[in-house]
Amino acid sequence: MTLIVSRRRTAAALALTAAAGVAMAGGLLSGVSAATPTGAARLAMADPYALVGWATQGGGTSGGGGTPATTVNNATALTNALKASGAAVIRVSGTISCSGMLKVASNKSVIGNSGATISGCGLNVASASNVIIRNLTFRNWNDDAINVQYSTRVWIDHNTLTNGYDGAIDIKRASDYVTVSWNRIFDHDKSMLLGHSDGNASEDVGHLRVTYHHNFFDGSNQRHPRVRFGNPVHVYNNYYANVGSYGVASTEGAGVLVEGNYFENTEDPFHRGEGSSDPGNLVARNNHFVNSGSGDQGGSVASIPYSYSLDSASTVKSVVTGSGGAGAGKISV
Protein backbone atom coordinates (compact mmCIF):
# COMPACT_ATOMS: atom_id res chain seq x y z
CA MET A 1 0.00 0.00 0.00
CA THR A 2 1.36 3.40 -1.00
CA LEU A 3 0.10 6.44 0.84
CA ILE A 4 -0.62 9.43 -1.41
CA VAL A 5 0.31 12.45 0.71
CA SER A 6 1.88 15.50 -0.92
CA ARG A 7 5.21 16.58 0.56
CA ARG A 8 4.16 20.17 -0.27
CA ARG A 9 1.43 20.52 2.34
CA THR A 10 1.65 22.32 5.65
CA ALA A 11 0.07 20.87 8.78
CA ALA A 12 -2.92 23.16 8.27
CA ALA A 13 -3.48 21.86 4.78
CA LEU A 14 -3.12 18.26 5.93
CA ALA A 15 -6.04 18.80 8.26
CA LEU A 16 -8.14 19.78 5.26
CA THR A 17 -7.43 16.77 3.05
CA ALA A 18 -7.87 13.05 3.48
CA ALA A 19 -5.19 10.70 2.22
CA ALA A 20 -6.06 7.54 0.34
CA GLY A 21 -4.00 4.61 -0.88
CA VAL A 22 -3.23 3.16 -4.25
CA ALA A 23 -3.69 -0.61 -4.22
CA MET A 24 -0.90 -2.49 -5.91
CA ALA A 25 -0.94 -6.00 -7.32
CA GLY A 26 2.31 -7.42 -8.63
CA GLY A 27 3.67 -3.90 -9.14
CA LEU A 28 0.73 -2.94 -11.39
CA LEU A 29 -1.84 -0.26 -10.70
CA SER A 30 -5.17 -1.73 -9.67
CA GLY A 31 -6.85 0.85 -7.45
CA VAL A 32 -7.75 4.50 -7.03
CA SER A 33 -6.42 7.41 -5.04
CA ALA A 34 -7.90 10.67 -3.82
CA ALA A 35 -5.91 13.10 -1.72
CA THR A 36 -7.30 16.32 -3.08
CA PRO A 37 -6.36 19.79 -1.85
CA THR A 38 -8.57 22.43 -3.44
CA GLY A 39 -9.58 25.99 -2.66
CA ALA A 40 -8.43 27.03 0.81
CA ALA A 41 -6.40 23.87 1.20
CA ARG A 42 -4.36 24.65 -1.93
CA LEU A 43 -3.70 28.19 -0.67
CA ALA A 44 -2.55 26.74 2.65
CA MET A 45 0.17 24.69 1.01
CA ALA A 46 3.75 25.73 1.70
CA ASP A 47 4.34 25.76 -2.07
CA PRO A 48 1.44 24.50 -4.20
CA TYR A 49 3.60 24.65 -7.33
CA ALA A 50 6.63 22.78 -6.06
CA LEU A 51 8.14 20.04 -8.17
CA VAL A 52 6.37 16.67 -8.08
CA GLY A 53 6.45 13.66 -10.35
CA TRP A 54 9.20 11.88 -12.22
CA ALA A 55 11.64 14.82 -12.11
CA THR A 56 11.91 14.26 -8.34
CA GLN A 57 13.44 10.84 -8.99
CA GLY A 58 16.99 9.83 -9.87
CA GLY A 59 18.48 12.41 -7.53
CA GLY A 60 15.94 15.19 -8.16
CA THR A 61 16.00 18.34 -10.25
CA SER A 62 17.33 21.66 -8.94
CA GLY A 63 18.62 23.34 -12.11
CA GLY A 64 21.04 26.14 -11.33
CA GLY A 65 20.12 25.98 -7.66
CA GLY A 66 21.11 29.04 -5.65
CA THR A 67 23.57 30.38 -8.22
CA PRO A 68 23.25 34.19 -8.59
CA ALA A 69 21.03 34.95 -11.59
CA THR A 70 22.24 36.34 -14.92
CA THR A 71 19.69 38.37 -16.92
CA VAL A 72 19.70 38.17 -20.72
CA ASN A 73 17.67 40.22 -23.20
CA ASN A 74 19.00 39.27 -26.64
CA ALA A 75 19.64 36.10 -28.64
CA THR A 76 23.43 36.20 -28.40
CA ALA A 77 23.46 36.57 -24.63
CA LEU A 78 20.83 33.85 -24.23
CA THR A 79 22.70 31.44 -26.52
CA ASN A 80 25.97 31.92 -24.68
CA ALA A 81 24.42 31.59 -21.24
CA LEU A 82 22.53 28.42 -22.12
CA LYS A 83 25.53 26.53 -23.50
CA ALA A 84 28.09 27.60 -20.89
CA SER A 85 29.45 24.96 -18.55
CA GLY A 86 28.61 25.03 -14.86
CA ALA A 87 25.47 25.78 -12.91
CA ALA A 88 23.53 28.92 -13.84
CA VAL A 89 20.23 30.67 -13.22
CA ILE A 90 19.33 32.51 -16.43
CA ARG A 91 16.61 35.17 -16.27
CA VAL A 92 15.06 36.01 -19.63
CA SER A 93 13.83 39.58 -20.02
CA GLY A 94 11.67 41.06 -22.78
CA THR A 95 11.15 39.43 -26.18
CA ILE A 96 14.07 37.57 -27.70
CA SER A 97 13.79 36.80 -31.42
CA CYS A 98 15.88 33.97 -32.81
CA SER A 99 15.74 30.93 -35.10
CA GLY A 100 16.56 27.24 -34.87
CA MET A 101 17.25 25.46 -31.59
CA LEU A 102 19.40 26.86 -28.78
CA LYS A 103 21.40 24.21 -26.89
CA VAL A 104 20.81 24.02 -23.12
CA ALA A 105 23.65 22.54 -21.07
CA SER A 106 23.36 20.76 -17.73
CA ASN A 107 22.55 22.40 -14.38
CA LYS A 108 20.58 25.33 -15.76
CA SER A 109 17.45 27.15 -14.60
CA VAL A 110 15.94 29.18 -17.46
CA ILE A 111 13.31 31.45 -15.94
CA GLY A 112 11.29 34.21 -17.56
CA ASN A 113 10.84 37.58 -15.98
CA SER A 114 7.38 39.12 -16.34
CA GLY A 115 6.34 39.02 -20.00
CA ALA A 116 9.46 37.17 -21.16
CA THR A 117 9.01 35.71 -24.66
CA ILE A 118 11.13 33.57 -26.95
CA SER A 119 9.96 34.09 -30.53
CA GLY A 120 10.99 32.12 -33.61
CA CYS A 121 13.23 29.51 -31.99
CA GLY A 122 13.25 26.82 -29.31
CA LEU A 123 15.34 25.30 -26.54
CA ASN A 124 17.18 22.02 -27.12
CA VAL A 125 17.93 20.09 -23.93
CA ALA A 126 20.27 17.51 -25.44
CA SER A 127 22.68 15.18 -23.60
CA ALA A 128 22.08 17.24 -20.46
CA SER A 129 20.81 16.72 -16.93
CA ASN A 130 19.24 18.80 -14.17
CA VAL A 131 17.46 21.50 -16.20
CA ILE A 132 14.50 23.72 -15.26
CA ILE A 133 12.49 25.82 -17.76
CA ARG A 134 9.79 28.06 -16.23
CA ASN A 135 7.60 31.10 -16.85
CA LEU A 136 8.37 31.66 -20.54
CA THR A 137 6.14 32.31 -23.53
CA PHE A 138 7.17 30.53 -26.73
CA ARG A 139 5.65 31.51 -30.05
CA ASN A 140 6.25 31.01 -33.78
CA TRP A 141 9.10 28.52 -33.28
CA ASN A 142 10.44 27.04 -36.52
CA ASP A 143 11.38 23.58 -35.18
CA ASP A 144 10.28 22.57 -31.64
CA ALA A 145 9.63 24.98 -28.79
CA ILE A 146 11.24 22.66 -26.22
CA ASN A 147 13.04 19.47 -27.25
CA VAL A 148 14.45 17.02 -24.69
CA GLN A 149 16.69 14.18 -25.89
CA TYR A 150 19.31 11.98 -24.24
CA SER A 151 18.62 13.98 -21.07
CA THR A 152 17.48 13.29 -17.52
CA ARG A 153 15.98 15.22 -14.61
CA VAL A 154 14.16 18.00 -16.45
CA TRP A 155 11.29 20.17 -15.17
CA ILE A 156 9.21 22.19 -17.67
CA ASP A 157 6.73 24.33 -15.77
CA HIS A 158 4.33 27.29 -16.18
CA ASN A 159 5.11 28.13 -19.78
CA THR A 160 2.77 29.33 -22.54
CA LEU A 161 3.27 27.90 -26.02
CA THR A 162 1.46 28.91 -29.20
CA ASN A 163 1.54 28.86 -32.99
CA GLY A 164 4.74 26.97 -33.71
CA TYR A 165 5.90 24.69 -36.49
CA ASP A 166 6.43 21.28 -34.89
CA GLY A 167 6.22 19.98 -31.33
CA ALA A 168 5.54 22.29 -28.42
CA ILE A 169 7.25 20.00 -25.87
CA ASP A 170 8.84 16.85 -27.33
CA ILE A 171 10.72 14.30 -25.20
CA LYS A 172 12.62 11.47 -26.86
CA ARG A 173 15.77 9.36 -27.29
CA ALA A 174 16.13 7.67 -23.90
CA SER A 175 15.30 10.78 -21.87
CA ASP A 176 14.05 10.04 -18.38
CA TYR A 177 12.82 11.56 -15.10
CA VAL A 178 10.89 14.50 -16.58
CA THR A 179 7.97 16.53 -15.22
CA VAL A 180 5.83 18.73 -17.49
CA SER A 181 3.49 20.83 -15.34
CA TRP A 182 1.19 23.86 -15.46
CA ASN A 183 1.83 24.73 -19.13
CA ARG A 184 -0.77 26.20 -21.49
CA ILE A 185 -0.82 25.32 -25.19
CA PHE A 186 -3.21 27.05 -27.60
CA ASP A 187 -3.53 27.68 -31.35
CA HIS A 188 -1.17 24.80 -32.06
CA ASP A 189 -1.31 21.32 -33.64
CA LYS A 190 1.32 18.94 -32.20
CA SER A 191 1.51 19.46 -28.46
CA MET A 192 3.60 16.84 -26.65
CA LEU A 193 5.37 13.86 -28.22
CA LEU A 194 6.98 11.24 -25.99
CA GLY A 195 9.22 8.89 -27.99
CA HIS A 196 9.97 9.89 -31.57
CA SER A 197 9.99 6.59 -33.46
CA ASP A 198 8.49 3.10 -33.36
CA GLY A 199 11.94 1.74 -34.23
CA ASN A 200 13.76 3.18 -31.23
CA ALA A 201 12.84 0.53 -28.66
CA SER A 202 16.45 -0.42 -27.92
CA GLU A 203 17.12 3.06 -26.52
CA ASP A 204 13.74 3.94 -25.12
CA VAL A 205 12.42 0.87 -23.28
CA GLY A 206 13.05 1.42 -19.57
CA HIS A 207 13.21 5.20 -20.07
CA LEU A 208 10.79 7.95 -21.15
CA ARG A 209 9.25 8.13 -17.68
CA VAL A 210 7.40 11.44 -17.60
CA THR A 211 4.73 13.11 -15.47
CA TYR A 212 2.25 15.50 -17.12
CA HIS A 213 0.09 17.39 -14.64
CA HIS A 214 -2.07 20.53 -14.48
CA ASN A 215 -1.46 21.46 -18.10
CA PHE A 216 -4.10 23.39 -20.07
CA PHE A 217 -4.66 22.06 -23.59
CA ASP A 218 -6.67 24.97 -24.91
CA GLY A 219 -8.08 24.07 -28.30
CA SER A 220 -4.85 22.35 -29.34
CA ASN A 221 -5.18 19.44 -31.76
CA GLN A 222 -3.23 16.28 -30.87
CA ARG A 223 -0.45 14.64 -28.81
CA HIS A 224 -1.46 15.45 -25.25
CA PRO A 225 0.76 13.38 -25.04
CA ARG A 226 1.40 10.75 -27.73
CA VAL A 227 3.44 8.09 -25.93
CA ARG A 228 5.80 5.34 -27.06
CA PHE A 229 7.56 2.83 -24.77
CA GLY A 230 7.51 4.81 -21.48
CA ASN A 231 6.04 2.96 -18.48
CA PRO A 232 4.70 4.31 -16.25
CA VAL A 233 3.81 7.65 -17.80
CA HIS A 234 1.54 9.65 -15.51
CA VAL A 235 -1.06 12.04 -16.97
CA TYR A 236 -3.07 13.61 -14.17
CA ASN A 237 -5.15 16.71 -13.37
CA ASN A 238 -4.85 18.22 -16.86
CA TYR A 239 -7.63 20.26 -18.48
CA TYR A 240 -8.52 19.36 -22.07
CA ALA A 241 -10.77 21.98 -23.69
CA ASN A 242 -12.03 21.73 -27.28
CA VAL A 243 -9.27 19.36 -28.33
CA GLY A 244 -9.48 18.78 -32.08
CA SER A 245 -8.12 15.31 -32.86
CA TYR A 246 -7.38 13.38 -29.64
CA GLY A 247 -6.11 13.75 -26.10
CA VAL A 248 -3.78 10.94 -24.98
CA ALA A 249 -2.46 8.07 -27.11
CA SER A 250 -0.57 5.07 -25.69
CA THR A 251 1.44 3.07 -28.23
CA GLU A 252 4.32 0.61 -28.66
CA GLY A 253 4.07 -1.13 -25.30
CA ALA A 254 3.84 2.09 -23.27
CA GLY A 255 2.00 2.16 -19.96
CA VAL A 256 0.02 5.36 -19.35
CA LEU A 257 -2.05 6.23 -16.27
CA VAL A 258 -4.69 8.83 -17.20
CA GLU A 259 -6.01 10.05 -13.87
CA GLY A 260 -8.19 12.85 -12.55
CA ASN A 261 -8.29 14.88 -15.76
CA TYR A 262 -11.09 17.17 -16.98
CA PHE A 263 -12.15 16.59 -20.60
CA GLU A 264 -14.51 19.14 -22.14
CA ASN A 265 -15.70 19.13 -25.76
CA THR A 266 -13.11 16.46 -26.52
CA GLU A 267 -14.60 13.68 -28.64
CA ASP A 268 -11.58 11.35 -28.30
CA PRO A 269 -10.06 11.86 -24.84
CA PHE A 270 -7.66 8.88 -24.91
CA HIS A 271 -6.98 5.74 -26.89
CA ARG A 272 -4.44 2.99 -27.60
CA GLY A 273 -2.50 2.93 -30.85
CA GLU A 274 -2.03 5.86 -33.20
CA GLY A 275 -1.18 6.00 -36.89
CA SER A 276 1.09 3.05 -37.69
CA SER A 277 2.08 2.58 -34.02
CA ASP A 278 0.80 -0.52 -32.25
CA PRO A 279 -1.44 -0.12 -29.18
CA GLY A 280 0.10 0.34 -25.76
CA ASN A 281 -1.46 -0.01 -22.31
CA LEU A 282 -3.67 2.64 -20.75
CA VAL A 283 -5.42 2.75 -17.40
CA ALA A 284 -7.97 5.55 -16.91
CA ARG A 285 -9.57 6.42 -13.58
CA ASN A 286 -11.40 9.25 -11.82
CA ASN A 287 -11.63 11.47 -14.93
CA HIS A 288 -14.40 14.03 -15.52
CA PHE A 289 -16.15 14.30 -18.91
CA VAL A 290 -18.23 17.18 -20.25
CA ASN A 291 -19.62 16.73 -23.78
CA SER A 292 -16.76 14.30 -24.47
CA GLY A 293 -16.23 10.69 -25.45
CA SER A 294 -15.52 7.93 -22.95
CA GLY A 295 -12.12 6.89 -24.30
CA ASP A 296 -10.46 3.53 -24.91
CA GLN A 297 -8.39 1.79 -22.25
CA GLY A 298 -6.89 -1.62 -21.55
CA GLY A 299 -3.91 -3.48 -20.17
CA SER A 300 -1.91 -2.68 -17.06
CA VAL A 301 0.54 0.04 -16.06
CA ALA A 302 3.52 -0.11 -13.71
CA SER A 303 3.05 1.51 -10.30
CA ILE A 304 3.80 5.16 -9.63
CA PRO A 305 6.85 5.41 -7.33
CA TYR A 306 6.46 8.98 -6.02
CA SER A 307 4.01 10.75 -3.74
CA TYR A 308 1.56 13.19 -5.29
CA SER A 309 -1.66 14.96 -4.42
CA LEU A 310 -4.66 14.62 -6.72
CA ASP A 311 -7.22 17.38 -7.22
CA SER A 312 -10.77 16.16 -7.69
CA ALA A 313 -11.32 15.89 -11.45
CA SER A 314 -14.43 18.08 -11.36
CA THR A 315 -12.38 20.99 -9.94
CA VAL A 316 -9.47 20.74 -12.39
CA LYS A 317 -10.92 23.26 -14.87
CA SER A 318 -11.14 25.99 -12.24
CA VAL A 319 -7.74 25.11 -10.75
CA VAL A 320 -5.91 25.10 -14.08
CA THR A 321 -7.57 28.20 -15.58
CA GLY A 322 -7.73 30.31 -12.44
CA SER A 323 -5.28 32.79 -10.96
CA GLY A 324 -2.09 30.92 -10.30
CA GLY A 325 -3.10 28.35 -12.91
CA ALA A 326 -1.41 27.14 -16.07
CA GLY A 327 0.79 29.28 -18.31
CA ALA A 328 3.44 31.97 -18.01
CA GLY A 329 2.84 34.95 -15.76
CA LYS A 330 0.66 33.05 -13.31
CA ILE A 331 3.24 32.65 -10.54
CA SER A 332 6.22 34.53 -9.17
CA VAL A 333 9.44 32.60 -9.70
TrEMBL record:
* SMART domains, sorted: Amb_all, PbH1
The residue ranges of the Pectate lyase domain are 65-269
What keywords does the record list, in alphabetical order? Answer: Carbohydrate metabolism, Lyase, Polysaccharide degradation, Secreted, Signal
Lyase as UniProt keyword:
yes
Pfam families, per the entry = Pectate_lyase_4
Q: Which organism is it from?
A: Sphaerisporangium flaviroseum
Q: Where this protein primarily resides, as one coarse class? A: secreted
Instruction: State the organism's lineage.
Output: Bacteria, Bacillati, Actinomycetota, Actinomycetes, Streptosporangiales
Per its record, how is this protein called by name? Pectate lyase domain-containing protein
